[in-house]
Every structure is written in structure tokens, then in C-alpha cells.
Amino acid sequence: MDRMKSVLIIATMDTKYKEARYIESCLKEIGIPFITLDGGIKGDSPFPVQIKRGDVAIRGGMSIEEVRNIGHEGEAISIMARGAREIALELYKKGEIGGIIGIGGSMGTTLCTHVMQAFPIGFPKVMITTMASRDTRSFVRTKDIAMFYSISDISGINRITEKILRNGALAIAGMVKGHKDFPEPVKPLIVLSTLGTTEVCAQYIKNALEEKGREVIVFHTNGSGGEAMEELISKESVEAVVDLSLHELVDHYFGGDYDAGPERGSVALKKGIPTILIPGNTDFIVTGPLEKAKKYFPGREYHSHNAAITTLRTKKRELEFIAEVIAKFCNEAKGSVYIMIPGGGFSVWDQKGHPFYDPDGVKVFTKVLKKELKSEIPLTVSPYNANDIEFAKEVVEKLVHHLKLEG
Q1: Interacting residues of 336 by C-beta distance below 8 A, sequence separation 6+
Q2: Mean pLDDT, rounded, of the chain
């Protein structure tokens, strides 16, 4: 059996040394080796560590004294985070570490997750933090970081932190001990985007393509999902993309919560990957609870999806703008692109008897898109709603014949 790889423990040891020592003891108990990295700035570590803060600072581009004299805590922690990331990646490339566990409050979490974000999906990552009950998107981003909420402040070992720290240590230990090398995938990869409001369509497309021997990865377009999708497309070999849910562009430009940035929807086109673009879910903006929606978006049509999420019907001028953005992306595409417009509505809510039904919205969007789009780019308008099986069948047919994805 190969030598078991170590767990890298990252913390600011001047303030979190008790917790780090406790995690060390838990790992020792079950025979998991570890390497401890001190990312602290002020003070000193009260116990010996394998990777000292001075070494971390140097790898970040400054001496520890220079970091202490910066005078801005955010800039200082960025230097330490950069150095810690460099050291951790070097250990990984040498085959010395099989997982990372971090401990911290807001600053420590910034430090530790900056390191974790550099590691591939599937590499074990556990963050024990006071920040895990808040919006963790800036910490997790597009990586599989397991966030353990510390409940109380991480300030020594007590009846609460003792349990949570131990669970975190055992979690990372289990991941490292159970590590498996997965074989390289052999099936052609197709990427599909969706939200729940186009889920019936998405599931039909996914099942049909899997029957043709494809691996289909579905991304939930909630902001971080779109970011992860674009990242995968940029790095992996992708046979085709079905962008069924372009909703994140709406939230980016009009202040919604599901914002994946201005380039959302463009990566596959720039890379030359065959793509079908569908303006699914562009009929609404997503925001928080109803009270927040009414405060920041007064006078709109609201639909309370649940206690945490309210959606707002997009206005016609907003749809016109999104049509212009999509046309620009398509006009600059390096590969095959086909646009399919569900004329019966952009989501399950955009049809008769549902909260955002507005047939004029589809017409306005289509008119602008046709005007702005290069004449050689194919565009079809279906009579069906985006969530209808008939529309899903049309999408699969276009993939099979227009993009020549024969099984």
C-alpha cells in the first residue's frame, strides 16, 4: 500500500493554536499524518510548526516584518494567502498532502479558502469557520469546500468547539483514507444549464443525450453554478453546450442575486464549442425575501418562490438589452451556434395561468435578437414553452442533426 499522504492544517497559530493542536491530536489518534502551516501575522506560534509564518510571507513576496508594517489587514492577509497557496501547491505536486483542513474567523477563512480554491475538484477540503452560516460564495466559489459552522467563536476548546473540531478532523481523515483515483472519462461530454423552472425540459434533454452515449453535466444557474460551468467549459474537452438557462445575465445587469458575471454564456462560443443557446428563465430576476424585493425593486410583479427567494418579472426594455448581449456573443462566436426561442414562454412561470405570463415579452426579445444577429446565424422560434417536452424534443433533434451529434 502507498504511504498515506498528510493532511495540511492551516491556521493563524497566534490565535488558533489550541484548536490546531486539538485537530492534530484527533488525527494522531486515528493514524493520519499531518503538516501544520502557520498563516498568522502578528505575534508568534506558541508551539513548533512545520511551515512557519516567515516562510509563508517570503513565498508571498515579502518578509514577515514587511507584512506587519503594511498597515492594512486585508492587504496583509492577501500576501500570506498567496504564500500559503504557493507552498500548499508545491506540497501537492510532490505528492506529500492528500487533504487540507483550515480553522478561522473571517480573516482565517479568507486565508484558508484562498488556498483551497487552487486545488482540483475531488481533493479533500474542510473549513471550520464562524462564517459558514452566512453567504459563503466568496469563500467557496467554484470548488467543493466543505464548510463546518463553528456555532460559537473559535476561541479555545469548549463543549461546543471540541465536538465540531473533532468532526471536522474526522471528516478530512475519512476523505484522505478513502481517496480513490478515478479513471479518465471516455464518454463525450455535453454541458447543460438549467433552473427548476426549466427542469422538465432539462431532464428530457439529459436522458436523451445519455441514451446516445454522452456524459451530461448539468449546472444550476444560481450564480456560482454558472461560474463553475464556464470554468469547466474553459478547461475541459466539451463536445457541445446546451445553454437552456441564460438567467444569470439578467441578474448580472439588473441587480439580481444569481450573478455569474458579464461573460456568462460566452466561453463556449469563444472557444468554438458547438452551442445551442436558449433564453430560458430570462423572464425573471431573482432576489431575496419579499420584503427585500419590494424595497430594492418597488412596483414590480413579484412571485414569492419561498421564504428566502422572490422573483420579479423582467421588463420589456430589460429583455431587449439581454437580446442585444446574446446577439453580440453569437456574432463573435468562433464555432457553430444555434439559437432556439421558446415562443410559448421562457420558463414554467411564463405561460397561461402562471405568474409571469407575457407573450409580448417573447415577441420583443425575438424582434431585437433578429435585428442584431448576423444573418448567417440560425434562429428558430418554437410555439412551445421552454418547459414543454415538445420543445425539449426539438432541442435534442437540433443537437443530433444540426450539430451532428450522432450516437
Answers
A1: 274, 275, 402, 403
A2: 95
- Domain boundaries in the chain? 6-177, 189-401
CATH 2.60.40.3210 assigned to 6-177: no
In sequence order, what are the beta bridge partners of 102? Answer: 10, 127
User: How far apart (Å, rounded) are the C-alpha atoms in residues 368 and 365?
Assistant: 5
pLDDT exceeds 70 at position 406: no
Which three cell numbers mark 374?
A: 448576423
- Res 325: pLDDT: 97
pLDDT in tens, 263-322: 999 999 999 999 999 999 999 999 999 999 999 999 999 999 999 999 999 999 999 999
Nearest of 24, 42, 87 to residue 61 by alpha carbon: 87
189-401: CATH class: alpha beta
Residue 23 grid cell: 485537530
Residues ≥6 apart with Cβ < 8 Å to 284: 197, 247, 250, 303, 311, 312, 313, 314, 347, 349, 356
What separation in angstroms does the CA of 291 have from each of 152, 222, 307, 314? Answer: 29, 20, 10, 18
